[in-house]
Design brief:
four-stranded antiparallel β-sheet
Length: 278
């Protein structure tokens, strides 16, 4: 069996705008629920140590595609995937790939903060214990909290319930939990949509800091957020079948964020970023 944990959490020497290694390669990916495709025929590369934003109107399959990058859709009985998803050159959906190892290598942060009903310490230690990474547990927990820019705020009260934290602190705790097992990549599905502007600014600052050590893919409806934090942007839209009326998401264009927003190649992208629909 291929062990995805062999992929090092290495820092790339390339800048996000230079020639970076490719982490994900998607080729003609279609994801369906039952017989209805949620997103169809996506071909896309995601570079290392950069922030890639998925943008587009509601219902265009952005979150569905994001969850395919760490096989979270496997947990939905009706979901199916066609096409190729390669992670550091490895077929992520090969029969000998363990989805649990996939999710350990590719962490996820969800739309709403979802801390466990445990202490701050035990929230971060949970995944480490499951993974058997219990050597130097205290140091690992501290390192993860420092990486999520939360250590200075909680170091003297690690036994406190995670529910006692503010919303922004809870989301940073969830980021600490995601990076504790030393993943290669972090997926973020609307991580700031439930937060106030101050907490949002702190999470965005943290994302820019984490980019130096991780590859980040973020789904966001906030175009200003995509402009502020991302290096590359992929714009998706929804097609409606003239025969059946069924809706499915499609990739329109992808490129450097400054180009997608400043000089889009497709009129649909230009209309969306200008606020003419969506």
């Amino acid at each position: 069996m291929v062990n995805l944990m062999d992929s090092p959490n290495a820092v790339s020497d390339a800048t996000p705008t230079g020639d970076a290694a490719t982490v994900f390669e998607l080729e003609k990916v279609t994801i369906a629920y039952g017989t209805q495709p949620a997103i169809a025929d996506v071909t896309l590369d995601v570079p290392q140590n950069a922030i890639t934003a998925f943008i587009g109107p509601s219902g265009c399959g952005k979150s569905t595609l994001l969850r395919a990058l760490n096989r979270m859709n496997d947990l939905i009985p009706t979901a199916s995937l066609r096409g190729d998803v390669r992670y550091h050159g490895t077929d992520l959906y090969a029969h000998d790939i363990d989805p649990v190892l996939v999710r350990r290598s590719i962490g996820m942060v969800f739309q709403k903060p979802n801390p466990f009903p445990k202490s701050i310490y035990d929230n971060v230690a949970f995944g480490l214990r499951v993974a058997g990474m219990t050597d130097d547990l205290d140091d690992r927990v501290q390192h993860a909290l420092q990486g999520a820019a939360l250590w200075d705020e909680v170091q003297h009260d690690l036994k406190r319930s995670a529910y006692a934290l503010s919303g922004g602190q809870q989301q940073r705790l969830c980021i600490a939990r995601a990076i504790a097992t030393q993943p290669d990549t972090i997926l973020m599905d609307e991580p700031c949509s439930a937060l106030d502007p101050i907490a949002t600014a702190r999470i965005e600052e943290l994302m820019r800091e984490l980019r130096e050590r991780y590859t980040i893919v973020i789904v966001t409806h906030n175009m200003q957020q995509a402009i502020r934090v991302s290096d590359r942007t992929a714009f998706f839209t929804t097609h409606v079948s003239t025969e059946t009326g069924a809706r499915s998401g499609h990739l329109v264009e992808t490129g450097r964020t400054v180009d997608v927003f400043g000089s889009p190649k497709d009129q649909r992208t230009a209309d969306y970023v200008a606020g003419r629909f969506g």
